[in-house]
Design a protein that fits this description.
mainly alpha; 2 strands; single chain; 6 helices; 124 residues; TIM Barrel; two-stranded parallel sheet
Length: 124
């Protein structure tokens, strides 16, 4: 959860001199909030994906996080217009592989209750 990520990152950074990188998937709908709380707690890096290839079983959208952090102490410096050009390119690429996409559209909140292990949905 976002608050668990905040607490975990805060404690690790307080106790150890290590670099932390967070990897999470967007399946439950909490990944964006989790990344933001981890960033606020001092995480050193996070995984995202260009919007046209993000969400569902993948990572949160890069552009959303870049826009969220713009003008803050965590501003990425990435150009949102260049990111949109990249997203447009991959929207076209994704069309070619539509037949191979998973069935999930949007979020699957059942995971919040069932605690399905990572990777299980895409490996079934």
């Amino acid at each position: 959860t976002p608050m668990a990520a905040y607490e975990l990152v805060s404690e690790i950074k307080k106790r150890f001199e290590v670099r932390l990188h967070l990897h999470c998937h967007a399946t439950t709908g909490m990944a964006e909030m989790t990344l933001l709380k981890a960033i606020e707690a001092g995480v050193d890096g996070v995984d995202t994906a260009i919007s046209s290839m993000s969400a569902t079983y993948g990572h949160p959208a890069t552009e959303a996080l870049v826009a969220t952090l713009a003008g803050t102490e965590h501003d990425t410096g990435l150009d949102i217009l260049k990111l949109e050009n990249i997203a447009a390119y991959f929207r076209e690429v994704r069309k070619k592989y539509h037949a191979f996409e998973g069935q999930l559209k949007g979020y699957d909140s059942r995971i919040l209750v069932a605690q399905v292990p990572g990777g299980m949905l895409t490996n079934l």
